[in-house]
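Sample 3 of the quickstart, ligand zinc ion:
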Amino acid sequence: MTEPQREWFEKDYYKVLGVAEGASAKEITKAYRKLARELHPDANPGDTAAEERFKAVSAAYDVIGDDEKRKAYDEVRRMGPTAGMFGGAGPSAGGFNVGFDDIGDLLGGLFGRGGGGRSGGRQQQASRAQQGADLETELSLDFTDAVNGLETEIHLTSEATCSTCNGVGSAPGSAPTKCGVCDGSGMQNDNQGFFSMSRPCGQCGGRGSLITDPCRTCQGSGGEVRARDVKVRIPAGVKTGQRIRLKGRGGPGRFGGQPGDLFVKVRVKDHPLFGRQGRDLTLEVPITFPEAVLGADISVPTLGGEMVKMRIPAGTTSGRTFRLRGKGGDTGDLLVTATVLIPDQLSDEQRAAVESFAAASPGSPRAHLEV
Ligand SMILES: [Zn+2]
Ligand SMILES: [Zn+2]
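Result:
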């Protein structure tokens, strides 16, 4: 057998396609076509989860959609548990019982733990596809930008795809060469008597190719640390501590792996006048004692700079809040809280006026407290 059977142990292709193990070839093809249509990258642009599933579905159909391969696949999966190599209900149940001294090596290779160590000369061992790292950066925003949202650029210095070799790892003008040990398949066969199993090639680490002339910039790693600008759309209404995820803008994937994500942690600067409450803005407005008592038409500022008129009704108590609909930036209302100012220094004229007000106000507001 020449197929990469490591995958066969790990993956239930019937489950991937959502068919029964005894499904007919026709049923398998039908299930595959339906999933392939749904998950096709053209139908799901930018959706890497769909893309991964599309690949998994294609890989599954590649095996169980082919009579010959399906027979071999079924046999490998059947023989695993019954050949005395594995304990439990089979490989998918996890927890292997190893019955041979050299099987540890074999399994190490099967699950990618085996050490290569056979590379020689200037050749470097490539490894299998690795997902890039997730990165986090901070962005300080003006109050107005946080309320209204904006599109901006973040400057950051981080691991990125090597600009010299474009992530390939080979020096410009050279290309990775096909691995001679596995003939480019990435797998090597081990004959264990009752059936043969394959494991990732020890020379190329399962990649199928070798970097013979490593790129000078990245030493063959395909990545480098460099400054870059990343466009980010800040949605209206973000708050301090919120994280915005930029899919695929993190560290570069290696050897065909997906890039990681970039998380932008937002810090919003305070505003000298406005505060926030949910999606609304808050504003404290001082009013005079006569305005509170008699009522008044006043003007208050909005975040955009424009002044809006509002009515303070007669008899407004200190701390009362008024809602100005649609005046709280792009996202909400403006909540205006009136604070009644009590003068602590009075002119003679003011004192006389207050005294005559008192004389004209008989009775005590505390009458109900008297026992
Ligand atoms: Zn490079
Ligand atoms: Zn190889």
